[in-house]
Write a structure and sequence with these properties.
By secondary structure, the protein is of the alpha/beta class. About 40% of the residues lie in helices and about 15% in strands. It has 13 helices and 15 strands. The protein has helices at about 15-20, 40-50, 60-75, 90-100, 120-125, 150-155, 180-190, 220-225, 250-260, 270-280, 285-310, 335-345, 370-385; strands at about 25-30, 85-90, 110-115, 130-135, 135-140, 145, 160-165, 195-200, 225-230, 245, 315, 320-325, 345, 350, 360-365. A seven-stranded mixed sheet has the order 2-10-9-8-7-3-4, sandwiched between helices. The protein has a four-stranded antiparallel sheet with strand order 11-12-15-14, with helices on one face. Strand 8 (about 195-200), helix 8 (about 220-225) and strand 9 (about 225-230) form a beta-alpha-beta unit. The protein binds pyridoxal-5'-phosphate. The site of pyridoxal-5'-phosphate has 13 residues, from helix 4.
Length: about 400
């Protein structure tokens, strides 16, 4: 039976970064936004606010902060007061502010690669030194799988390390870290007195049994040294509205974070806040249906890769709408990103941009109608079959 997510919405000519970057014949499965209409309560809330017609400076919506606190309590038993919430115009802004807030010029920021590219640039943007540890890559049931490599992390730590940026659920591997994996990383940070900045933007996009555990909920000491970054943008497909947030229960750490943002980071725009409030308040049913659809898309991708794309191995993501393809066995000279763009007219994210461990990989965004996904995968198959 067709559902709302099957609808092929025309996005060409609508200011969409995803659709404008490549020529019209290319199917864009790159940047992380979905080709779905946002939930109706969000669209209605925006229309109501726009109808008022006055768009002066806004206060931080108190209802939004209360709603975030309520979701953290109901979802994870995490009790935080509204004062702990700092609204931000973007989550990448939060990554950069965290790097700026912690330590001084030349201090180290630890990350786990391959990872969402702004993790690689935020530290150096802010005069910090990037410290990289690769995750452990393995295979499970014929699928690509990543484990946290605590020894590699430990090996990358130096006396200068002040901050660890965690991505959980992980982009691009789709891992949802278990409590014990989080404990191992938190223990390491506590032992070396490292602040944690945990990007949990994908935490509502769980595709199955995995449960999300915010690292700050492990224990009060970890909470006191953690900045958690969240946003409704990926989940409810409103990234263009720019509304994210940091949860920082420790007042001193929060003051440090706010001081690093002062005068540089603007307030969140009023439409973004109203959209976020509606998304967090009225869209749980939409989200449940979205997750069902994404699970089916994930299965479609995994099955297709296994049966029709020899030489490629894929993750089976536990969360996100992102699959990560290991294409190294294809041995294409120009790399898989360029090969598929040129020969299949399908645009992915180039794995080389995700840091060590990303070369020879591409990231595929399956947040699109199944018909689009099918067409893209069939084009990939044909491009591989047509190779001399
Ligand atoms: C892990 C992660 N963090 C942050 C972002 C972007 O957040 P924002 O658009 O709010 O800066 C993305 C978008 O893909 C992401 O995957």
């Amino acid at each position: 039976m067709a559902c709302e997510f099957d609808e092929e919405v025309i996005r060409q000519g609508t200011d969409s970064l995803k659709w404008a970057k490549f020529s019209d014949e290319v199917i864009p499965l790159w940047v992380a936004d979905m080709d779905f209409v946002a939930p109706e309560p969000v669209v209605r809330a925006l229309a109501r606010r726009i109808d008022h017609g006055v768009f002066g400076y806004a206060i931080d919506l108190p209802e939004l902060k209360s709603k975030v606190c309520e979701r953290l309590l109901v979802g994870y038993g995490w009790e935080v007061g509204p004062e702990a919430i700092v609204l931000l115009p973007g989550l990448v802004t939060g990554l950069n502010v965290a790097c700026r807030a912690i330590g001084t010029q030349g201090d180290g920021v630890l990350i786990n690669t391959p990872v969402y590219p702004p993790f690689l640039t935020a530290p150096t943007n802010q005069g910090r030194q990037l410290q990289v540890a690769e995750q452990a890559r393995t295979t499970r049931d014929g699928e690509l799988y990543y484990d946290v490599d605590v020894d590699a992390l430990e090996g990358a730590v130096t006396p200068q390390t002040g901050l660890f940026i965690l991505c959980n659920p992980h982009n691009p591997t789709g891992r949802v870290f278990s409590r014990s994996e989080l404990e191992a990383q938190a223990e390491l940070c506590a032992r070396h007195n490292i602040v944690i900045c945990s990007d949990e933007i994908h935490c509502d996009l769980l595709l199955g049994e995995s449960k999300h555990v915010p690292i700050a909920t492990l224990d009060p000491e970890i909470e006191a040294q953690t900045i958690t970054l969240l946003a409704p943008s990926k989940t409810f497909n409103i990234p263009g509205l720019g509304c994210s947030l940091a949860v920082i229960p420790n007042a001193a750490l929060r003051a440090q974070f706010k001081a690093a943002a002062r005068g540089i980071v603007p307030d969140v725009n009023v439409l973004g806040m109203h959209a976020a409030l509606a998304a967090y308040s009225h869209c749980d049913q939409w989200l449940a249906e979205l997750r069902e659809y994404l699970i089916e898309n994930r299965e479609y991708v995994v099955d297709f890769v296994k049966s029709h794309l020899p030489g490629i191995q894929t993750t089976k993501p536990e969360a996100t709408y992102l699959a990560w393809f290991d294409c190294r066995e294809l041995e294409v000279d120009e790399g898989p990103f360029r090969f598929f763009l040129k020969n299949a007219k399908v645009a992915f994210n180039n794995g080389a941009h995700f840091g060590p461990g990303g070369e020879g990989f591409v990231r595929l965004n399956f947040g699109c109608p199944r018909s689009t996904l099918r067409e893209a995968l069939e084009r990939m198959q044909k491009a591989l079959e047509d190779r001399p």
